[in-house]
């Protein structure tokens, strides 16, 4: 939900296909101790993965969260998935922070966008 007094946000620009997306959809638990710090660390850590292109986030008022990570190729996605610190955060998410989640990985074959210009 966007309050018009906030700085406008925009989705990640389209990339030249093919590339990969990891769509992570979550419902969080009430226990969120340490989540913000770990999430910030993961957002910094993933930037070091060669082939990482960017990330979009959305959160509904009802608590459904969606994060979409964009990766140039399957090797970049595999490197992120197998990162030791990321795997530790994943386990903590299952143990503490997530009521449920789904992960969808897809190869993007077409991509385009639109931005209204003043």
- Beginning-to-end CA distance, first to last residue: 22 Å
Looking at the structure, the CATH topology is Alpha-Beta Plaits
Count all strands and give the number: 4
- What class do helices, strands and sheet pairing give? alpha+beta
| Widest β-sheet, arrangement of strands | 2-3-1-4
| Gyration radius, in Å | 15 Å
- Along the chain, the helix and strand elements come as EHEEHHE
Low-confidence stretches are: 1-6
What is the mean pLDDT? Answer: 92
How much helicity do the residues have?
A: 25-40%
Share of residues in strands? 25-35%
Gross morphology is globular
Major beta sheet, specifics?
Answer: 4 strands, antiparallel
Walk me through the structure.
- The chain is built from 3 helices and 4 strands.
- The chain has 118 residues and is α+β, with helices and mostly antiparallel strands.
- The protein has a single domain, classed as Alpha-Beta Plaits.
- A hairpin with a 4-residue loop joins strand 2 and strand 3.
- The chain is globular.
Q: Short summary of the structure?
A:
29% of the residues lie in helices and 31% in strands. It has helices at residues 35-46, 74-81, 84-97; strands at residues 19-28, 52-59, 64-71, 98-108.
Main attributes of the structure:
3 helices; about 30% helix; Alpha-Beta Plaits; four-stranded antiparallel sheet; disordered N terminus; about 120 residues; alpha+beta
């Amino acid at each position: 939900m966007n309050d018009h007094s906030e700085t406008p946000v925009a989705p990640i620009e389209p990339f030249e296909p093919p590339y990969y997306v990891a769509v992570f959809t979550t419902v969080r638990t009430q226990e969120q101790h340490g989540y913000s710090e770990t999430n910030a660390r993961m957002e910094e850590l993933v930037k070091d993965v060669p082939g990482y292109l960017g990330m979009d986030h959305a959160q509904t008022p009802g608590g459904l969260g969606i994060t979409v990570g964009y990766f140039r190729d399957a090797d970049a996605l595999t490197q992120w998935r197998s990162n030791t610190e990321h795997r530790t955060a994943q386990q903590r998410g299952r143990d503490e922070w997530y009521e449920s989640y789904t992960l969808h990985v897809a190869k993007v074959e077409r991509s385009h966008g639109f931005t209204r210009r003043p």
